[in-house]
Amino acid sequence: MTDLAERDEQATDRDRAAGMRERRLAAQRGARRVFARFGFQRTLRERLAVLDEAEDVHDLDELSDWYGDGVVEALERKVAGLLGTEAAAFFPTGTMAQQVALRCWAGRTGNPTVALHALSHPEVHERNAFSEVGRLRPVRVTGEPRLPTAAEVRDFEEPFGALMLELPLRDAGFVLPTWEELTEVVEAARERDAVVHFDGARLWESTVQLGRPLEEIAGLADSVYVSFYKSLEAFGGAALAGPKELVEEAKAWRHRYGGQVFQQFPTALSALVGLERELPRLPEYVAHARVVAAALREGFAAAGLPWARVHPEVPHTHDFQVWLPYDADVLAEVSVRAAEETGCVLFASPWNRGGPGLAVTELHVRAEGLEWTVEDVKSAVAEFVARLPE
């Protein structure tokens, strides 16, 4: 294939993907039944309406924030209290927060090597930011679709200054270890004189599977990053929590990285609203995600689909994967068409190739998903399977 033909084909693929995304979002907005309605799928007016609830979480008569004071400091104190840490620092992105955290730890340990999972967010989604920007050296403890084991950490063939654990591990299916496994992994890292950092972008919903409160989970690590938009539906933002001295140094690096933003009050207020409104409901979402997952399995079996997988079989959080033996483009078209024709969105996320003849998507259960009964799920599965090619 010539370079020109290859570029034309790539442009066509991009146009096709953009068109599918537009159809998917339109179907989602027009549907009468969905599992979740995320903030990024709403209009600006609808997003701004979130701030109508801000009066319940912060004094709106105080002066606006100025380079990280006021409401931003109030949010930092709230997060530190929830996680049981000495302090917390607001960051505009998790990518920046984790680079800064691990850069600070590298200065303290004298070792810039960070041990992490091959599927962790910095390795898959951040364009090698650790090495290109953070002067860190990532090494992969394992690539298996699970968290690293204590033995893998203990027996890793080279020294490292920090172990980073993503809880839950999103690209492996939002999976978590057991509490016992997690404590053993942390102990193994400490035996090697390494610090432990939790990538807790979705830590908020991990309490159900781990069977421990947030402060006890966060207490295992030397530092923790949490996201405000992935589960709490804030406009964006993140926090780094840990010892006061580390957080103070992190704030200096935040300034150097360009994260000392003049005003962040809309994002900070939306995060406080999320902590008040969404955080208490996450266990309910996790519990219902398990009901939905079981109904999906039963629905696929009843529809006679020869092979289908829900992973994990019992979801660890309110997000999980669905695997089907079809081409991703076929499943994307069928998912959107079923949503357009029935008004029920079974699969709202993109389908990605998971191997020859296999595709995988993610299913997210939020407040809207609580309205789905077992029979609703099975009916939607039947409608979906009926549209699949024979």
UniProtKB/TrEMBL annotation:
Keywords: Lyase, Pyridoxal phosphate. Residues 1-20 are annotated as: Disordered. InterPro entries: ArAA_b-elim_lyase/Thr_aldolase (IPR001597), PyrdxlP-dep_Trfase (IPR015424), PyrdxlP-dep_Trfase_major (IPR015421), PyrdxlP-dep_Trfase_small (IPR015422). The lineage of its organism: Bacteria, Bacillati, Actinomycetota, Actinomycetes, Kitasatosporales. PANTHER family: L-THREONINE ALDOLASE, L-THREONINE ALDOLASE-RELATED. Belongs to the threonine aldolase family. Pfam families: Beta_elim_lyase. It comes from Streptomyces olindensis. GO terms for molecular function: lyase activity. Its cofactor is pyridoxal 5'-phosphate. Residues 68-297 form the Aromatic amino acid beta-eliminating lyase/threonine aldolase domain. This is Beta-eliminating lyase-related protein. SUPFAM superfamilies: PLP-dependent transferases (SSF53383).
